[in-house]
Structures are given as structure tokens and as C-alpha cells.
Amino acid sequence: MRGRSDGEDELFSFVRFEERVPKDHPLRAIRSLADEVLVSLSGRFEGLYAKVGRPSIPPEMLLRATLLQAFFSVRSERMLMEQINYNLLFRWFVGLTMDAPIWHATGFTHNRGRLLDTDVARAFLTGLLSLPQVKRLLSNEHFSVDGTLIDAWASMKSFQPKDGSGTPPGEGRNGERDFRAEKRSNATHASVTDPDARLYRKSDGQPSRLCYMGHVLMENRHGLAVDATLTHATGTAEREATLAMLDRRANTRRRITLGADKAYDVMDFVKDLRGRKVTPHIAINGTVSKSGKPRKTAIDKRTLRHPGYDISQRCRKRIEEIFGWAKSGTGLTKFKVRGLKKAQAVFGFVIAAYNLVRLPKLIAATPA
Asked: Please, are residues 326 and 69 in contact by the beta-carbon 8 Å criterion?
């Protein structure tokens, strides 16, 4: 017989909250991994909060909510709070009960700012990679590195002379401004909206923009990110960040290989790598000068003769999958926070979220 849709609302529910989430839902395996890491970070969280006063939002819930924002490309904290309010899956993942009141978006942002101002994002990524079921998936010999530009949360109109001179924008909240024939550089100008942002042009013919530069160190076995950092956008930032990430590695005695594109083919950089027992599997920059002479390279036949060089050159391109997921999957084409410290934390959480998305299938497919 035909069913009727005019039933009354029920006052109580007799279905357990845990039963609302399917047993095979991908978020179950992801939350299990995230909870293991959060347990190891409990001591670090204790040092961030006072011993007396009104309880704040638990940092574990803040971190789970931040991961959800990356998984589902939620554009703002206000939309995230709206989703957590009526989406049972979001409530379950964060750790809220069915009847728990939702936080105000401003309160959530202020509470999460405490985590963004510290090094919790890197600690979370390190803790994730230290889990036994994850550690056995990682290569400790072959790596790749690359960088990408991410726009800052600042308008080009905010890039003004440091001495206070210059023509102000026209009338109105977003007045017109003519930049033609105006010379601007990071030495003489700075953004009044985000002073840490830098004006940078990727290559000739490309527009200059206010941005940061994100860097990822990837292991070549499964293409997982083992380190991530964010720096000012400069011509030497990629090489400087690479050396910093290599220096943070615990095991520096074993010789490793490092694949990279031709932007890393610099004599001094290759020398620094070899001094760190790193074999540079770097693409040769064969730029030809106006006089017809090719650019001098530091990659010689000692490296090119080995078959591992060609393998590294193929594997290093997988790092673009990480950047592609971060930008198209989570919407990280432009930061929603200002300042290098907070932007670096957001970038670190997004890279950790990429690993979490891929790890459950890799763990299931790899025998112990």
C-alpha cells in the first residue's frame, strides 16, 4: 500500500549514533589513524593551555574539524560549523554527541588560532609517519622534492611603498588603481594586509602576485609526503627549504637519492647535497645563452650513468599529485589566513590530510 509522509516527529531516537556511520566508510579508518596520533600529542596540548579557567574547545576536536575542512573543501569556518551542526557524519568524526551544542564560528577560529601559532601541524605529520603501520610503507633511501606557489590573502592594491608615499587607491571601498609604469619590488614595497607575503613572478610572461611558496619532501615508494614547509616566495627558497627539510631527518648517515626538477640544478646546491650524503638526481637545466653556450650543470656522468637516475626522474613527478590534490581537492589556491606562521600551519595540515586520505588503502594492500 502507499506510504504516507505526514508522520509526526519523534521525540527520542533508539538508534545508536555509532550505527549511523557505515562500517566500511572511509572516514572510519582515517579517524582511527588520526586518533592514534592525537593520543601521542596529548602532552604537547597540555603545555598550550592554562591549568585554571573556563574549558576551551578540546584541541583534538579542533584538529579533527580542521581535517574535515580539508577533506570536503569547506570554504570557511562558518560553513564548517553549519555542516557539523546538521551533518551526522561530521559530528561523529569530530567527536560530538548527538545533542551537543555547536560552537560559534568566531569562537572556533579563535581557539584554533592557538594551534596555528605553534608547531602542532608538523608534530601531527611527524606523529602520523611514526606509526608502525605507516612507517613500514615509507622508503628511507629515495626521495623527491618540489615547491609550489600559493596566493596570499592580500590584494595587489595592498602592496604599497614602505615609506608611506605613493598614490592611494581611488574613492570607495575597492577604488581603482593604475599600476602602469610604476616600479614595485619587495625591497621598497610591502603589503599592508599581509606583510609576510612577497611579490613573486614564476617565469617570464607570467604575472607577478603576492604569494607564499610551499615545499614538500616525498618518499618515492608510495608517493607519501614525509615533510612539508612554507617559506617566503624568493628565487632561492626552494633550495633553502630543501636543505632545511633534509637536516630535520633523523637518519642522516645513510646515503639517499633526491629527485628534483631543473630549478634545483645549481652548483652550490648540488655541492651542499653531496656534503649531506645525498645523491642529486636532478634534471639538467640545459638553458642556452644568447651566445649559444649551454648552461653549466653540476650533474655529471657519475650520476647519469646509473639506472636509478632515470627512475628518480619518473618518480619525482608524482609530487605534483600532492600539490594538485591540495589545490583542487581542498581549495588551497589561496590562503584564508594571514602571516607566515599561520599559513605554514594550514599548509602542514593539508599535507597531513593528503597522507591520511591515501594511507588506509595502502595499509590494507601491503602485508605486514
From this structure: no
